[in-house]
Amino acid sequence: MRLPGWYWLSSVVAVLAACGAGAEQAHNLTEELRDASAQAACPARLEGRGKCEGSQCGFQLTLPTLTLQLPQQLGNMEQVLKEVRALKEAVDSLKKSCQDCKLQADDHGDPGGDGAGPAGDNRVQELESQVNKLSSELKDAKDELQGLQGRLETLHLVNMNNMEHYVDDKVANLTFVVNSLDGKCSKCPGQESTQSQPVQHLIYKDCSDYYMIGKRSSETYRVTPDHRNSSFLVYCDMETMGGGWTVLQARLDGSTNFTRYWKDYKAGFGNLEREFWLGNDKIHLLTKSKEMILRIDLEDFKGLKLYALYDEFYVANEFLKYRLHIGNYNGTAGDALRFSKYYNHDLKFFTTPDRDNDRYPYGNCGLYYSSGWWFDACLSANLNGKYYHQKYRGVRNGIFWGTWPGISQAQPGGYKSSFRQAKMMIRPKNFKP
Ligand SMILES: *[C@@H]1O[C@H](CO)[C@@H](O)[C@H](O)[C@H]1NC(C)=O
Ligand SMILES: *[C@@H]1O[C@H](CO)[C@@H](O)[C@H](O)[C@H]1NC(C)=O
Ligand SMILES: *[C@@H]1O[C@H](CO)[C@@H](O)[C@H](O)[C@H]1NC(C)=O
Ligand SMILES: *[C@@H]1O[C@H](CO)[C@@H](O)[C@H](O)[C@H]1NC(C)=O
Ligand SMILES: *[C@@H]1O[C@H](CO)[C@@H](O)[C@H](O)[C@H]1NC(C)=O
Ligand SMILES: [Ca+2]
């Protein structure tokens, strides 16, 4: 009997060979950077210097009259290096578990096992050498850049984002391969349960992944919900109801203007530590990557705090105008997103003052209510309304939650109540704190 794992392994290594081309292509960043779309904005070139021998491969930075600004990007390289080192450890442990596996197979005198075992072993070694190579090249590149920094600090630099995306992508790809290999390889036939030891998560898709590795402080973390896209920072709430929440939106003092255009809501705006909208593209990626629940926390100026929980939450992509999907409601604040037959934000498109996708035929709800939101015709909730520091009169364009105590008794021309705080955050449905 042959070990099915080894067969599988060989196809994975084929994939790896392509991405291991990563290790080779890293020699030739020139090519990668040329491909990148942002290249037009990047007059500088980073290229392999001469022939690359073994893992020693220098980088040369060619600068016309330009721009350098390294520190932040160097920080990112540091991060990548760390990830590559962690990958290397994962490969080491994989290698070990595969060896153990092979010994075990030999013990059982598996007749068909000969050849397959050692071949698999070689492939893990190959994997290891690819990781080593990538790691040392990254280190060279980093040293080189650090060396340059002194000389170039008066200049303004290079759009390093291309390189960052490129490297991120390679690391994500390697990680994916290592993680999948682990699932197959660490299980020896006949010894499924005792042997397997999950490889440490190397890609954090959202805040719950940070929670799982023991992070308990509420602050910003870098997440990669989809390894084909670049990673980005999010604010994690590690305290509310068990923690692990990725915050999508926060209002607390009116410091950020939420009357914004489509492109702003798409990319996100504000300050992650204070008030912000994370951005519709990011929200889409986060909610696509795992099944999420939504929690909304609200507080009024009397100090009343209530919440709403939706057991599903998904935001479609831009092509589908970031259409909202919410599940069943639970909580204390009332189901204002699905208020009635006539006011229902579920399954509505996103509307901004410059992009009318709402159900109101005579005008743009986003323009009238000064915000970007999944307007119906028009609203029973709007957490992106204006921040009023006290009750106000006129158009109800403040932060609004239609099921809030007392709100329905308000007179049409009278005062409207306002909110001190609002927050929207998500967490995987299957998360158990
Ligand atoms: C890894 O990269 C290779 C080549 O770039 C690609 O063909 C492959 O699909 C990638 N694998 C994953 C899991 O993205
Ligand atoms: C890198 O890519 C460029 C452009 O495709 C090519 O001309 C050059 O020969 C490559 N260099 C190496 C070392 O492969
Ligand atoms: C917010 O931005 C909008 C659009 O640019 C502008 O009209 C409005 O005056 C701003 N509000 C505040 C309070 O700055
Ligand atoms: C993810 O990639 C797609 C396609 O390249 C792009 O349109 C989108 O803006 C990216 N999202 C983020 C959050 O970077
Ligand atoms: C709502 O949440 C509470 C507290 O978590 C739980 O006890 C209750 O069963 C939930 N109700 C529904 C309808 O899911
Ligand atoms: Ca309309």
TrEMBL record:
Coiled coil: 77-158
Gene3D superfamilies: Gamma Fibrinogen, chain A, domain 1 (3.90.215.10)
Record keywords: Coiled coil, Disulfide bond, Glycoprotein, Secreted, Signal
Subcellular location: Secreted
The protein's assembly and partners: Homotetramer; disulfide-linked.
NCBIfam families to which the protein is assigned, alphabetical: GGGWT_bact
Protein name, entry field: Fibroleukin
